[in-house]
Amino acid sequence: MLPRGRPRAMGAVVLLLLLLVVGFFLFGRDPEYGLGTTATLDEKPYGSRNRSASSSQLLLPSKCEMLHVAIVCAGYNSSREIITLMKSLLFYRKNPLHLHLITDAIARNILETLFRTWMVPAVVVSFYDAEELKPLVSWIPNKHYSGLYGLMKLVLPSILPLSLARVIVLDTDVTFSSDIVELWALFDRFSDKQVVGLVENQSDWYLGNLWKNHRPWPALGRGFNTGVILLWLDRLQQTGWEQMWKLTAKRELHTLTATSLADQDIFNAVLKEHPNLVHPLPCVWNVQLSDHTLAERCYLEAADLKVIHWNSPKKLRVKNKHAEFFRNLHLTFLGYDGKLLRRELFGCPNQFPPGAEQLQQALAQLDEEEPCFEFRQQQLTVHRVHITFLPHQPPPPRPYDVTLVAQLSMDRLQMLEALCRHWPGPMSLALYLTDAEAQQFLHFVETSPVLSARKDVAYHVVYQDGPLYPVNQLRNVALAQALTPYVFLSDIDFLPAYSLYDYLRASIEQLELGSRRKAALVVPAFETLHYRFSFPNSKAELLTLLDAGSLYTFRYHEWPQGHLSTDYSRWREAQAPYRVQWSADYEPYVVVPRDCPRYDPRFVGFGWNKVAHIIELDAQEYEFLVLPEAFSIHLPHAPSLDISRFRSSSTYRNCLQALKEEFHQDLSRRYGSAALKYLTALQQSRSRA
Amino acid sequence: MLPRGRPRAMGAVVLLLLLLVVGFFLFGRDPEYGLGTTATLDEKPYGSRNRSASSSQLLLPSKCEMLHVAIVCAGYNSSREIITLMKSLLFYRKNPLHLHLITDAIARNILETLFRTWMVPAVVVSFYDAEELKPLVSWIPNKHYSGLYGLMKLVLPSILPLSLARVIVLDTDVTFSSDIVELWALFDRFSDKQVVGLVENQSDWYLGNLWKNHRPWPALGRGFNTGVILLWLDRLQQTGWEQMWKLTAKRELHTLTATSLADQDIFNAVLKEHPNLVHPLPCVWNVQLSDHTLAERCYLEAADLKVIHWNSPKKLRVKNKHAEFFRNLHLTFLGYDGKLLRRELFGCPNQFPPGAEQLQQALAQLDEEEPCFEFRQQQLTVHRVHITFLPHQPPPPRPYDVTLVAQLSMDRLQMLEALCRHWPGPMSLALYLTDAEAQQFLHFVETSPVLSARKDVAYHVVYQDGPLYPVNQLRNVALAQALTPYVFLSDIDFLPAYSLYDYLRASIEQLELGSRRKAALVVPAFETLHYRFSFPNSKAELLTLLDAGSLYTFRYHEWPQGHLSTDYSRWREAQAPYRVQWSADYEPYVVVPRDCPRYDPRFVGFGWNKVAHIIELDAQEYEFLVLPEAFSIHLPHAPSLDISRFRSSSTYRNCLQALKEEFHQDLSRRYGSAALKYLTALQQSRSRA
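Predict the joint structure of the above. Result:
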């Protein structure tokens, strides 16, 4: 390769120098203005001691002009990665954005939910099905870790709308450190013939001298990196891009067998043949932290970095003497609270996503001085939701399968391993986390052999917003994502009997729940007050511990009515499931069909959140059947902040009372006189209190 | 005022228009380039639909040029506020900064510790004593909430070093949303005569028409706001600034009795007389969100906001239809992880603060593949420390007074109220929090009547960094900040007997600890496993509960050796303090003089952190005296993440073992053969294990 590559590389350098000089005369007094900083690593930047404001002399688009960005994104991990990119992009942007996301089904599912709940003003998102693109690129053998998806950037011109003249294409592993409008403005620097803007590749890969027998694809000098691309779409169409790259790729594949760097190899081979098509971009727009990076030559002199590209397979763990600096830039957005990006663009029309304006109005109408203001606000809050935050294998379809459903925050993370040991079946867990905590959670799972071995546990992150724990909103997120026909509605502090998963599936089958009965199977609840205790292996062992005073029925001292109807003394003797009747404040843990009623999201913070759900089940005529061999045990923990507030604040208790009353009003409206018994029970309990 | 003010205001508008036109011809094609955006609110910005890159045409200083910033800061709340300003400033800055902080003793104490531990490269901090400035301004009656400190901006030219030619002066309640270098560059726009750069005041305050009989100080039109000032110091000296403002102030005070807006009134009165001294800055450099703000006229049209000024006494709670937008900008930095700002400036010399380079090297030398890498890294980590995060009243000097010392993280916050009820004396608490959690903590204290009533509790925030809880580093921070002669070294999950504070002080006096004895008073530890239990009011009640099995001696089942030496059966009967001998793994809660040995910071995460400290006390020949009426009770909580990791990971246990061995080696080095007994005990316990 070398003898063939060199003269062309020299030619490219001359060409670039020429462009630079032209840029100098066209655009300003200081050559630095021409291309921001140098376009190739071998030149010394001009005027590095003095500098002008970034991108001076660029005429930026009007502040309401829409900028278009296309990204290919597939799978769970890329769907997480792209969010950090999005946060950095949105943090600095001041223009409306239209995102064109080419996704597989997994990424689409995740990102649709995320953007719908994120509600960022002045962001439009369109999805394109990556499946449809596969046949267009699957004939190209590719050794790069991005697989087929990496190659899809080649066919963007044929999938994006014809009305779209220009687009910025990004890899998911880039981080912005400046306003994308400055990058967009570089389209204006294109000559009439140029169709693609790229930054030089910041390693010697394409020079072919990295190791012995290294045979890279042909490129102009060091070639270009395709992590950040300015694509002039309509010109590409006119140039016959599709024919062009296919011809080149096919020809090179005769000798090269496969691409090593996916689309990038093909882009470079095409541009080597047609150097007039490429507009070289300043190096700061794609600072590449690959394993063999020469990026230092760019960033040590530059006044300002614009985009960081984590293009090593090691990503953030890449070795680099300035790694800490770059990591800090990235961590800034990794932990950044995404809701702060719900910022409007002053003076631009039609920027609000569906529902956002109504929501803002509803929030604005709340009275901050009203005692239950926090409750009202929390109920209205739309939380960002990131479903299946980690890789997940959906359970195979089985008619009697049960998913354990629960929710937690950071302080219950240590329950997860034990829970995994007790429940070998699928789980759907909602986690209420800050953006920073979500990263700690990721680390926690990755470093736990128990957790990382389990692919049937789906974790759904609901991002924190507001002072009260939105317990029922969390339960509904976890419930909506359960994929089996039945769900076990549990709480995170409970460990189920080791046999419970199997026993529940057998019971569902025996009781023929699927076909004829509308039932809620009750799993009796117990509690231990000891940190360490040996979990009973059977009902008999449990009863022994109960008699020895090592276990209690759940909340026996504090809140006996919560499980009164379960009738623990009958359970002791029971050999078969038995039916029980609803009574006031009943809140058992139950197994129900996945399509059961949702939890009432008005209950935020502590209190009555499960009680209301059980009332709903009863009102809809679910039978409560207690299972004779089922049990689950609550482990001790410090009282939550919400329960502490409930105990110490009469306002808090009054607000909860108000919620209960509103709930009953709604209940009467929906169930008429059938709901009378719940109201009577409520009034009786109030008169007792 | 109005008839007098108007013609001059008109004159000012004409002058500004003139400047703008001159700016147009001098600086660019587009008038917007001249002043960024308009300098007065009454003009429509030019070219608001098209825009250039921000501050185009400004020639920025070289990237290593030092910029100087002066800020007056006094008291606990301003010391918190200034940190958010600093974070926003550091986030965008790309130049070395020299901060000139004019502080009272409180702010100095807090900020010196903070900046020393923050270790931000390329930031120099100088402190100036505000006490010395008081006499220079105390003769001016002032009604503004900033008090005397507000006025100090007037005398900055006489206190800052003569070598300092130019400085940017900021109020603590501003937030940056851009690089301060662009503001600094505006000095170049000053004419030869101009000495001070200011943004127009964005309310009608100085027009005097806000309410009936409102008599503001004289000003040019709407006057100027002094939240952001460009001061050309050497020119000010030459102009005779000191004489000038004093003369003006004295004259106006004949009729106006006091300033309403502190320094700002005087600045405006001076500039009204000498309009040639002021250089009007673009409105975006001080977007004022005061109660009567007209800022909308600025920001709705501007392409870019540079500095937000929360100049309402309501601060973030100010009513404004775009309040959410501005709050989000502010919250971005309020919750921003400050350690991410430890970013070097590429290519600038001598930027590292004391110790930073050695620390970096030590960290770089660690082997990431070594099994105990996380422990090594955590031990080396320098955490940012914000002492006395909330307003605090130091206890009056009393010879036998005791401070309760403890540490906690967010998940133990709900212990604080109970602790306050049990311990009426001073406390020094270290909190291990993220920046975002520190804000939640602030909210928690503000909304708790119990906590906000207690001014003798000092909260010291140690910012989170790394995966292991740095328990002993936290204890040392809390211990170092205790201000009484004695300290009770407790843990956050313990509630002391109601009488303990009084009893300890009496015991210290009776035992004459102050003069002759080197003693550690042991407070026997118990535990309950119940969430709710009624706390014993006396030793007799405690013994009854113990006999009833409602209480246990602490960790009786799991770790009896921790409190074996305390000898609970002797304590039952004891009427007087009794001496006990050290035994292996002894870790009682003790009362010692404040100058006791520090905790060994190598113990991070779970395990052996108190044991090592008690060994240290024993090695230094402290007597252990058990107090017969003292007790404290541990409340139940879920196991911490660290203890879970200890239990589940053999690597974790091996690393702890390695730490123990290193500790013993150091012990032998320091105490020679006297330390032999500790090593023997360790070896015996290992052979038992």
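Residues 1-36, 45-56 of chain A have pLDDT under 50 and may be disordered.
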